[in-house]
Amino acid sequence: MKALLLAACLLLQPAITPARILFVGNSLTYENDLPGMVCLLARSAGRSVVCESVALPDYGLEQHWQSGGARKAIAGGRWDVVVLQQGPSALPESRRVLVDYTRRFDTDIKKAGAKTALYMVWPSRQRRGDVEAVSQSYRAAARSVGGLLLPVGDAWRSASAVAPDLPLYSADGFHPSGVGTYLAALVVYRGLFGVPAPAMPILGGTAGHAELLQRVAIEAVEPGRREPPAFARK
Fold first, then answer.
1. Is residue 13 included in any domain, yes or no?
2. Which residues have CB under 8 Å from 115's CB, separation 6+?
């Protein structure tokens, strides 16, 4: 009898609906599979998550808007959150484009019942002095739509200040190494779910690197924290 009652209770429990996250960006999103790493972190924490992406080389939000693929994915995917990513966007014209197309995409995202998030990237190694302008551009875009800010670029700056030899860049001095993508995933996870990500081995890094990056990710997200989307609190 007890077994029958337990089975009945399990059948009556609502199924856990997976959180659905769509990434729209370029090679700074797909290099080392950032969406897959975020999903792996979430699943290792016991969360049910689906992560997909529309990411193409050298694409900004304007190119994604014009090509139509990202808009189609947003309209048809029943997403909880859509993470938008452009290049560093430090120059005034690039900032204008970032804010403009963030607003356009936000209209589609809200219509689809999802939340907009901005994945703030970083400047190239040669243009490290642009990091504050990059930060201001992405903050302006997030503010313009009341969206979530995922300040990876700020975390990148902090990590480099603490450990200048930390291998965040790949050999080309712009794309992330495995360590850089791990830092990005920690910040994205923290920003979306509101809690630190679980520990995980880093491609090309050490346990000491993991501890440092976790601390940096928490500190980067905390100052401007908003409540995470409702799906993160399920």
1. no
2. 80, 81, 82, 109, 147, 148, 229
Fill in the amino acid letter for 151: P
Structural domain span for residue 176: 18-224
pLDDT of 111 higher than 60: yes
| Residue 83 falls inside a structural domain | yes
What one-character DSSP code corresponds to residue 177?
-
Q: How far apart are CA 23 and CA 83, in angstroms?
A: 5
E strand or H helix that includes residue 82: strand 81-84
The string of DSSP letters for 97-150 reads: HHHHHHHHHHHHHHHTT-EEEEE-----GGGGGGHHHHHHHHHHHHHHHT-EEE
> How many angstroms separate the CA atoms of 84 and 167, rounded?
25
Residue 130 lies in a domain: yes
- CA–CA gap between residue 47 and residue 38 (Å, rounded): 11
pLDDT digits (tens, 9 = 90+) for 178-224: 999 999 999 999 999 999 999 887 766 677 788 899 999 999 997 65
- Shortest CA distance to 191 belongs to which of 143, 229, 138? 229
H/E segment holding residue 55 = strand 49-55
- pTM here? 0.89
Q: Is 50 helix (H, G, I), strand (E, B) or coil?
A: strand
The three-class DSSP label of residue 163 is: coil
CATH code of residue 122: 3.40.50.1110
Strand pairing class (49-55; 19-25): parallel
Q: Total domain count for the chain?
A: 1
